[in-house]
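Bumping with the actual sequence this time:
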Amino acid sequence: QIQVVESGGGLVQAGGSLRLSCAVSGSTFSTNAIAWYRQAPGKERELVARIKIGSNIDYTDSVKGRFTISRDNTKDTVYLQMNSLKPEDTAVYYCNARLGEKRGGLWFSLNDYWGQGTQVTVSS
């Protein structure tokens, strides 16, 4: 059974830092991409940062220069380092793993797997 587990959320003052972790386990598929999303109360879920394996890293404009996404291949873990946090960063942060089969350079049977979310609260 594939599991996506986030950790590292919490309460921090504005200007502070947090590091979120996302561990993916139980998969026999290849990883196409790992991404962090967030959802604030009353708002839609939005993409924060994404690593597309073998390709580029993307960030939403509001976090560029403050957040860094990275991957530890040996641990099947992705991190989101969040610096200079602002109250508007307050949200539940979700990890998304897009897994599938890669054959001949093409991807097949891609599916998204989500973690349960971790709360990040930034006080002013």
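The tokens above came from a reply further down the thread. The first strand starts at residue 3 and ends at 7.
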